[in-house]
Amino acid sequence: MSALRYPSPEAPPKSRSGDPARLRPGSDDCYELLAGPKHRGSDGLRLMRIAWEFMRGFRALHHIGPCVTVFGSSRTPEGHPYYASARQMGRKLVEVGFTVMTGGGPGVMEAANRGAKEAGGTSVGCKIELPHEQVLNPYVDIAVRFHYFFVRKVMLVKYSSAFVVMPGGFGTMDEIFETATLIQTHTIQDFPLIVMDTEYWQPLLAFMRERMAPAGTIDADDIGLLTFTDSIEDAVDCILRGVPEQLRP
Question: What is the pTM of this model?
């Protein structure tokens, strides 16, 4: 049996074209973290950096108050209906007393932060450092920058009382299912998880109903962890009804 081989620090990851990937500060460190066993000393130093990143997040977000996180695509341009909907969602959440938190990037995240800021509320962005996107949008009042995806995702969940999912891609799918799993396993409270735009998400809902539940990979009741709607008013009402009293505005 041949030995497992891990990339060395001297051999940077390659892009799809075969050229060495151009990595921003932080993303190379994440690559090294997930590239197999390292020297104990370097892993120890990396662990200290991870702990410090958690601490910075805790300190920055501790006082943001009742908060709703909005997930969605970074690739949605201004003028798109998804952008307009997320902007309206951010505004409405602030009007009923919530802080609005996003991943801090462009697209749907920008729109939700923008709506929150325009309504005079607190707009929070948890920005991740990536090789090719995620510039902090200009509508963020409180910004926290992260090297590590998993630290960022903990912050987006830890400080939220509810979650709104707008149309998005791989990252949004990751966020929706991680959040649903945390609710399903009672790792977090049964917070409202609202999925906006039923037409966009219909194939996902059908897959859960017609494949996953009949196969027994989820319980039929698990589908109810997600609330699908096209109405911002209904979404906000659902949030207000579902958020525990101590976490309401």
Answer: 0.85
